[in-house]
Amino acid sequence: MSAISRLEQPGSQAPLGEALLLVGDFWNVLVLQSVFLGARRFQNIRDQLSISDSVLSRRLSSLTEAGVIDTSPYQDRPVRLEYRLTDAGTALWDVLVAMWAWDRHWITGRHRLSEVDLQHLDCANLTRPVFGCGSCGAIGVTARDVSSTADDQLWASLVRRRGRRSVIATEAASSTGILGDQWSILVLAEALQGSRHFGEFQSRLGVSPVTLNNRLSAFVSRGVMTRSSVTDGARRQVYRLTPRGLDFFSITSMINRWAQHWLADDGRTGLTITHLACGEQIQPQLTCNACNGRLTREAIRFESEGTPLATSWTRDRLTSAPA
Ligand SMILES: [Zn+2]
Ligand SMILES: [Zn+2]
Description:
Elements: H1 3-8, H2 15-23, H3 26-36, H4 42-49, H5 53-65, E1 69-75, E2 80-85, H6 87-90, H7 93-106, E3 116-120, E4 125-126, E5 129-133, E6 146-150, H8 152-162, H9 175-179, H10 182-192, H11 198-205, H12 209-221, E7 225-232, E8 234-241, H13 243-247, H14 249-262, E9 271-275, E10 284-288, E11 300-304, E12 307-308, H15 315-320
Antiparallel strand pairs: 1-2, 3-4, 3-11, 5-10, 6-9, 7-8, 11-12
């Protein structure tokens, strides 16, 4: 069944849309990061993020409903719960690593994860992940090396289904800030597919001119896009992704892969990203820039000033490794 006909089924799902809603929510991402970095209990997460009880409760409920975390009691009377990543949640590790890498590379000045380093345990070096294609083993694949095809209807249906929903991004310069609004990532995905003119974005997304103008202007002010005027008949504004905007493609392709695997019944999300060199659908993978070895969930560790931060995906390694 095509993505379009799936979307026309009553109650059907838009897997990429669900994934974008999940990681396109600023607080969802911060709560997930916090659980990844070892926080298990409500008060730990709340204190780490300086988040209100009601906002945290809502996000924990929606993350649980989405199947990326679950709970187990650690105390009977009164009952208190610990939050843990499910398999689907654990599989978001490379999305979060890609977001961390983007922030480290492109955001100057202090931000939430600026003090956190990533160590590759296989070579013991601090690493900067390099994006590549697992289908052919190429390392250093960029947005210029791929072609993306999405059916227009997918985006349009997504927008119709979800309507407007946005959150306040308090860390607007970081990747979570860019993802922190559903419209923002839809506009960005369109730009990565090659849209440049205001009218192209508008007709493909079915977004109001005011909303679209807000998001494009925000991208320009954050250095993700440039805006210039061209005259071909009528005077038009052209938006082009900057290198930091193009680099965001690694994050969107990882989100897409995760949605294909964990949310789509038939492995399809409506967005296909093809690696031009090998002609295969890209299988995103991260490689260590120090040793060229592939980064795996078990062989990386976040640390701050040399002190390991416990992470759920390195739990086994940490307990079996010598102190
Ligand atoms: Zn390839
Ligand atoms: Zn390495």
